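Memo to structure team: turn this sequence into structure tokens by end of day. - J.P.
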Amino acid sequence: MTLSLQSTVKLRDGNTIPIMGFGTYEMEGKTCYNAVLWALEAGYRHIDSAAWYYNERECGDAIRDFLAKQNLPRSSVFFTTKLQRNVSYQATQLAIDKSLKACGLDYIDLYLLHGPIGGPETRRECWRAVCDAKKAGKVKSIGVSNFGVRHLQEMIRGGVELPVLNQIELNPFSTRADIVEVCRQHDIALEAWAPLARGHRFRHPSVVNLARKYGKEPAQILIRYSLQKTFITIPKSKSKPRIQSNAQVFDFELTEEEMHHLDSLNEDLVTDWDPTNCP
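Reply from structure team:
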């Protein structure tokens, strides 16, 4: 599997997305601006934000400053953001406009419902607003985050435009096989947040042994695993050296046996937020 930091995959709507992105959860202000700039300078071309992170402006500023300095077009960087809360059709429209204004990037490459909370009718109305924003050219692609099997099946049965991807917690310790299966069946790409399990399993013997074998950091083993699972992967860090090292995962490949072994480590680990079973 020959991959690079610039590799992309085609989504179900025909648009493409870089396979590796940079997550910005729990980053605000100058810290966020610097981290995004360092990521772009290191070669990342995919930045993941959210209204809930309160950093859309800093992400947008860093992207625009980088593009101006490098004399690159807006299309050179893929930007994702997310709806903070599912409230109503009108509230979603207003939220999208607010995000557009905050990031200052003319359009949003990928807009996600951040979660399924709110119930079937509210989800339906918010998704309708997102679909209309796509038709209006405000966003290029639309998807969901933290949706469980029941929420995906609700969309499939409802005959609505399906999301291009579902961003969920995915790593060897949280494999979410049921959600992955439904997404694969319906050509919904999978995007892994917390691909590093928030550092909670860096000392796991299996991860340590592979890191030793390949001369890599535990984080690099987990990122490589995610990429080989064909998950779009968005590790995050506030450290410039870590941001750079997390991108150095394209000069080795885990064997099929090693991938199967890592798959077997699933313990349904939840490192942060898991609304995938909400009504």
